[in-house]
Amino acid sequence: MGFGDLSPRQHALLGRWLPGATVERDHSWGLVATTVLEVTRAGARFIVKAGGDEDQHIQRELHAHLAWLRPWTERGRAPELVNGSADAKLLVTRYLPGELVLGSGYADDPGIHRQAGELLALLHAQVAVTDAGYERSENERSLAWLRRPHRIEASGVRRLRAEIATWPTPPATLVPTHGDWQPRNWLVHDGVVSVIDFGRAAMRPAYTDFSRLAAQDFRRDPALEAAFLDGYGADPREPDAWRRTRVRAAIGTAAWAHQVGDEQFEAQGHRMLAEVLAPS
Fold first, then answer.
1. Domains, the chain, ranges and CATH?
2. Which has the higher per-residue pLDDT, 1 or 192?
3. Whole-angstrom distance, CA of residue 210 vs CA of residue 190
4. What pTM, to 2 d.p., does this model score?
5. Residues pairing with 38 in the sheet
6. Where does the Aminoglycoside phosphotransferase domain start and stop, copy by copy (predicted)?
7. Strand partners, 92
């Protein structure tokens, strides 16, 4: 196993940062053009992430490491940055031991979700800014998804467009968010939860980090939601703003998953759409 998916520039940079490193395992997801490799050098383990030409995730992840992850890294709850280049779309972090929560027995453990809530509260508490254009921009993003290829029924598209047209656009309070907060990005080691994958990190309303959990884990077991909120400390989901977020998440999930060929995730998006469009 080698570094064949890296560009010549990425390969050269990695040779300077970790000379003689050996690839031990490929953790790449396969649906997006991001290579994720577990490597070793001089007995130490690292994670190498390399983006393709159109990648925007590495820049976001690098910014998150530099600006927002200290509350986690100082506790050993997130991987530490070793080196990175936004221009080359390449970064290296120290390997963080642990088992993915997704697909394990930990996924149904309220204690794990309580820890995840505590961690998320640390991220969100660092800074808050007011953005007068956030809601308008998110509406435009959802309408753009509806113009792209998808398999949402025409009647559903009409209803979604009509609803979005009625939404207010009040100023929004934005905080540092993970952007994909769910068991797929949580590790457990000796009973302690830590966090990985910051390629969608950005300033957003705090409640947007509840979206994946609400559509998946909280829906499966309300006890997980109660434990998560106990760890987080409050529930930031004001009903009207949360409704808008659920609709946007459903549209984005159904359309994005269709475009990358993830049929299981696309089906989840259509279920989310059915739930938000169901009569109240």
1. 8-96 (3.30.200.20), 100-277 (3.90.1200.10)
2. 192
3. 25
4. 0.94
5. 25, 47
6. 38-242
7. 48, 83
